[in-house]
Amino acid sequence: MLRRAKRLAETFASLFKRHLALKYIWVEWVLPFEILNIIFAIAGWYFFAKVFGRESPFLKPYGGSFIAYLILGMGIYPFFNTVLNQPYSLINICYSSSFVAGGVRMGWADYLQLAGIPIPIYMASEMLITLFQHIITLGVYLFAGIFIFGMQMPGHPNYLAAFLAVFLGMFAVLGIGLISASMIWIAGAWHGEEPIQWAVSMLAGLISGVYFPPEVLPKPLLALSQFLPQTYALRMARLSILKGYSISQLSSDFLILLLFCVILLPLGIVILHYSLKLAKKRGSLMSF
Length: 288
What we know:
288 residues; mainly alpha; two-stranded antiparallel sheet; 9 helices
């Protein structure tokens, strides 16, 4: 058991290093353009708020600054979007794409099997390197917000509580992502758009509090936002950073996020394994 765990850890580390080397070009060439895109995007919202904004009672719980509220939302939300969307896209690539090597056509999943790389390890390394990019992007958002647009930070921001909020939120949303990936076989969603992923992604971008507090929404949409883990994770992260709240002060959001994790992640794993068994009955798939 320990030998197998060590081999899996070494495989994961090797894949991550390979992805990191490949992503160097992103840092060298794409990131400078990404930084400018972020700065100009923030500037658009900043000047919009200057012209049309007023002191909003909905922002007071978060310190009253719209630009601080917005920057944290835009910087943190991609973490949730990655774990929501990538399980479906990666599994779809593994089982629907193919390439020719030495005159032999094989699927990507076949290649991974021949290389001795378990598909969950491959998926984890792909998602982790994307999350690593988001960490860099979040740093750019915060740097631009503080040093260019005058974003005010409290005296004692609680970064530990913010990290815990993002961490729990990611695991809760990952459960939804795994359920979405299982629809490849359960619902035949091979064609690049999957209903669960599409609906959650669309709703979360509007009602979970990425760009504005959910409290401004009509009551039906506000009630619907309470069923999304992103809502609680974003609120908990903002209050811990902008107001310095402790985990005990955020206990309600913390416990709800924990409940989402306990329910959604195991449920996603079980449904995904069921969908793979279903696929094996219909054809021939390797062990996941």
